[in-house]
Q: What sequence folds into this?
């Protein structure tokens, strides 16, 4: 039989036998070469394609190994007889038809995940000044970190650290975290209650999986952290927006709106993004409610390391005597986000469910990173770094306040915040914060609008301005630019 | 008023004011100090406790900042009047009562997670010879890896790599993976279809979340990978065990048992743990069934890098023209498990749902590790390492076969496997593999029984013996020991 094959490409990256194999396989699958057909002899192929005998033999051997062709002793090579004809033609039809729409095919759960809109791209999403929650990288002790990493990538350590690890985390890191949150946040826990997870995002996701069923109500601070919102929506929960007053999460409003909530997501140390601290009475009331109603409290202590004035309030968890609080913190803010390490402190009864959920999700957090972080904490580098950035961030907040008040006194209203990494800059009443944020984004300034963090429209618009990871020079330049943008957008001069 | 306070501990790690604060706070919360009660003056406290005035002032300031006490000008410090009495007593009651049982409190979903029994502890779970699926760490090029890590922990790179990253993964790693699976596995994909995830465990978990609703049926190879089983069970799926024949996954049996399955989890390149390769006809039938019935195929290509004889069969994914195959691979086997990096290649229509699910689960895989791995692949270290370990593992398998046949010819039946990291060693008919594995574990040998990987009891028992991460000396010693254990357990000599 005469076989018309496309010429092979001598300059291609893939070897000649590979190309010949591909060509013949495609011809068989497309039924240009029908089942039972005899292939040209090795000699014929060599001369037709001007290739070596080895090239043809290699391609034939592979096709035979994979079942596309079969050799009959003394009589050459044939396309496999029992390749089911119907299958082959069904396949060529399906290549022509378009696939059915995916929307009708993924699960209801998958649809909820997509609709929860995690990490959406918005004009202000780019990580540049003044995107909130980003720490300073230029102050990070890279050399120390590198030395600690090098210490663990050695034959002596690899035998342990390269292996599958425990889902709850490395023992030395759990101990270091328990000591740290005990001393600095008065969290009451043993290392056994600490679960090392891939950041607060994972802590929230695990809580949603372990504690919520579809249809369960969740009290969400409004405005609040939009990533937690996505995690609960994806879990099929009903979000109940709870307003924020001077004392933080408004428990009375929450109880009026939906008394039977299964879980409350709260940021009592420094409400995100508005900033108030939940007072003692409110804390006791919330704990009391939780213990009598069976509501879980997810305490998200995302940035309480950064306090510039007064003593930080101890964590809500330390007051909990009924085992209703799941406490979570992160190293994304003090160290760096791409490390993807955070922690969750679970009441004793929840330790095993959370461990199991974590084992299913990603087995464990990379072990070398955990070992490095444990040393970084235990050897005092963490506290030294924290002191250093805390001082810098305090100065940066001060500079932000001065510059905003200097350049935009009539447009943005800012007040000092005793804690955190960002300021809330209130716009004049009636001004739409989303369009201001969009205008700023066009001028390369990321200043998310308060509306972005809100479920119900905020009464007054504001821009959320991160300063921690922004150098003084960038602050000066950025506020000047923001002033130009806002003045031009608002038509003032 | 006379206040009886426990003495403070001068040698404790926590400062004196901290201890005083704790003592007073506990007294208030326990109502030893009732609302409205006047505290002793600073001077009295100093003399009673033999501490400095600053210590007392610091503790008082903190209690006041947190709302436990209030100062009245000129008249001293009082326990806050409006600390709600009922709250405080409710709290002391709840400390005495035991918390309600957690089983009645976590969600149905949480209960399924716990019951799916992820990563259970069994006698044979310890990571020592011959636990399967563990690569060699002593052959790993630690120095190269360390140099690559150091390259990225620098001021120039930190600005990018320390930031929040894309959920789909670093572009350079997605490109390197697409090139690798294209060339070595004939996976047809663009880098846009590649999602970098935290190992195969996460790939399976994301697939369960995106593609399955509770009650959906999943075809599971039986025996098969128990971690995938847990992930599907936790998602509320109905597991349909599908027997394995010489051609792998038995499609006819699957269709008879449950025609409407939503997903099939298959290991066509090298069935886990039995080893057969799915032939071409079976592959085409499975793809045809998937495209006509709307079944998803999760192709788990966990160890096809290790092939010692013949050409590896191309991935099933490369034959899929209907977009029904989700392909997943891992670096746990070629590099090391604690790295926690794997990948998933999704059909175009599923890229966004999988990205969203990954963003919710843990945002992204640590970025420095991704950058290091991308360089390791792009600069040829990966292929060099792979060649090296492939040669070593081939020799180790050979040694295992020799030693087992030498020491246990009448007890264990083994056959060469052209691929993989373990051998299946069949026990004499009628011998219970679980009790043999338990006996081995007591002698420090981890040899999981085939039953452990099975949903329905296997017709004949076997031990699964990993050899890849076991040195020749350990193999010799371990098989001698295993022989002693099995002979003694079976009463043969």
A:
């Amino acid at each position: 039989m005469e076989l018309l094959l496309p010429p092979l490409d001598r300059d291609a990256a893939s070897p000649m036998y590979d190309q010949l194999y591909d060509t013949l396989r495609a011809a068989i699958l497309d039924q240009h070469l029908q089942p039972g057909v005899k292939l040209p002899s090795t000699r014929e192929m060599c001369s037709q394609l001007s290739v070596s005998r080895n090239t043809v033999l290699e391609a034939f051997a592979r096709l035979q190994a994979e079942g596309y062709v079969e050799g009959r002793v003394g009589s050459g090579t044939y396309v496999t007889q029992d390749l089911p004809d119907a299958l082959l033609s069904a396949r060529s039809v399906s290549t022509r038809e378009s696939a059915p729409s995916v929307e009708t095919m993924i699960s209801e759960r998958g649809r909820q995940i997509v609709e929860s809109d995690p990490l959406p791209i918005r004009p202000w999403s780019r990580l540049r000044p003044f995107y909130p929650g980003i720490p300073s990288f230029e102050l990070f002790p890279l050399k120390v970190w590198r030395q600690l990493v090098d210490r663990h990538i050695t034959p002596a350590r690899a035998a342990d650290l390269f292996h599958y690890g425990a889902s709850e985390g490395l023992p030395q890191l759990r101990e270091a975290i328990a000591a740290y949150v005990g001393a600095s946040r008065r969290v009451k826990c043993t290392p056994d209650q600490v679960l090392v997870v891939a950041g607060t995002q994972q802590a929230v996701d695990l809580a949603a999986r372990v504690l919520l069923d579809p249809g369960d109500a969740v009290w969400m601070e409004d405005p609040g952290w939009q990533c937690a919102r996505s995690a609960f929506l994806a879990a099929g929960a009903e979000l109940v927006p709870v307003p924020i007053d001077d004392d933080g999460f408004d428990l009375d409003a929450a109880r009026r709106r939906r008394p039977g909530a299964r879980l409350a997501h709260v940021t009592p140390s420094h409400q995100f993004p508005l900033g108030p601290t939940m007072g003692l009475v409110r804390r006791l009331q919330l704990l009391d409610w939780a213990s009598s109603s069976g509501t879980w409290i997810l305490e998200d202590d995302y940035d309480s390391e950064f306090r510039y004035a007064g003593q930080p309030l101890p964590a809500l968890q330390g007051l909990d005597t009924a085992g209703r609080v799941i406490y979570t913190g992160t190293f994304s803010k003090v160290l760096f986000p791409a490390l993807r390490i955070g922690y969750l402190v679970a009441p004793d009864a929840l330790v095993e469910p959370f461990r199991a959920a974590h084992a299913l999700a990603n087995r464990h957090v990379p072990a070398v990173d955990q070992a490095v972080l444990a040393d970084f904490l235990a050897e005092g580098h963490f506290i030294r770094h924290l002191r250093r950035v805390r001082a810098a961030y305090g100065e940066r907040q001060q500079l932000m306040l001065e510059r905003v008040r200097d350049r935009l006194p009539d447009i943005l209203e800012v007040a000092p915040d005793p804690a955190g990494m960002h300021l809330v800059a209130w716009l004049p009443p009636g001004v739409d914060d989303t369009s201001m944020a969009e205008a700023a984004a066009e001028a390369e300034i990321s200043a998310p609008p308060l509306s972005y963090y809100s479920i119900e429209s905020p009464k007054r618009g504001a821009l959320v301005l991160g300063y921690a990871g922004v150098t003084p020079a960038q602050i000066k330049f950025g506020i000047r630019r923001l002033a130009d943008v806002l003045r031009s957008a608002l038509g003032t001069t």
